[in-house]
Amino acid sequence: MRRKASLVLLACAVFCAALSPLLRWYAFPRLARIPANQYQDMVLTARNATLLDYGTMRARKVPEVTIVQTLKGDVKAAKRIERTAGRPVVVWDSLSYVQGPDGKMISRVPERYIFDAHSQDPVHATGESVDGDPVKRDGIEFKWPSLTRKRDYEYFDAQTRTTSPIHYEGTRTFRGVRVYYFEQTIPWTKVPFPKTMPVQGITPESVARTGTTRWYTTIRRFWVEPVTGAPVYGEEIHREELRGGTLLGGRAKVTAFAGHVKMREDYIEHTVALVKHNRTLVLMLTSYLPWGSLALGIVLLALSLWLEARTRRPRDATPTPTDEPDPVGA
């Protein structure tokens, strides 16, 4: 009986030991993926910002500028691209909508972002664009890969349509969550006008004919939870200027927007709670279950060997009493 139990325990130990690497290296890449149908929104604000009044073409201080960012997954497009890409793909249609304190639109810039569902590496396919212009992204955007490392990453800037390093600047704690802090500086760069302008009748083409150009710089900061690769907080010190041309009435430049853009408090709380939940799920596949399965396999192996040793132990020889036959008389 002990021999059978030992063999059963040995089989279970082998199974658990084999399950450990399978969970980490096979199940994790296939289960830890961005869902193709994901929808999320984010509200950011810039208080006491500087904003261009297109009526007078002069900059003025405003109490608040609001930026609403939405991401919506296109499932049909993702399945179509997957057939040729040969890997799981997510297609995000995003919109950055900026409005002034009066609720009127300042700018709206749509994007189509196509990327690998697990690694977040960009996937180049028809439709990849910023504000309707085709682009070919290099590097990440919106999200870091799961199990983010302490190193610099290439990050795509939608305004300049270029990729440059975003630097790892150390480990910090944000709202009780251990995070990696990243920072990127985009120097003053000439960028195109949004195709949707805040003033009816004004188009990027009509502005270009005046000789006026648009310039942009920003300091981009992210606090990234390394297990999930999700930013729990982000902000930008953002500046835009119009330079030259007849539109400015002889002035060399005018500030179009300047402000410290930060996530709104209620969205910070929601994001931190969501990231903490997803962090537990990722750790289950990368740490808790693989190491737990390996530890259980070792325990079962030790128990199996112990039972086998008990089975093979020689039994103690104990003398057995013998009955002397009664003498037989004649």
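^ that was protein a. below is b, sequence first then the tokens
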Amino acid sequence: MNNFFKKVILLLSIFILSIFVLSGCSKNNEVQPLIKNYEKLLNEGNYEALYDNISKKSKEYISKEEFIKRYSSIYSGIGANDIKISIGEINSKTQIPISITMNTLAGKLKFEDIKVDIVKEDKNYKINWNESLILPPMTKGDKIGVEVDKAV
């Protein structure tokens, strides 16, 4: 009987561990398409569709028109292109770690250790948006400008 109980405990441990591993994988599988779609829409300059990926709370924070205007003016002003978003190891149900690289008029920019807040709304994940998703150092009210100086 002692051997029987060891086998039962071992099987239960494997079962419980499998549940944790599978739930972590399913979270990653559910969120990854949201982030990859966000990356695709940024590269296409489709800011109107990008707005559909943000949460209701974010839509109260910024109107669709202002959202489109901010992305259009900033990204065209800095010549942003070839935007790549890498997803880090997901350990939280509400924050996704990402890194962003992009080419600009000033060269390649790379931002690491960015936390994207997400929420589940109507069975879909949405992004809690703020200005730092345009450029990570940005906060509300910041303005971005580009100056080109000719060499002497």
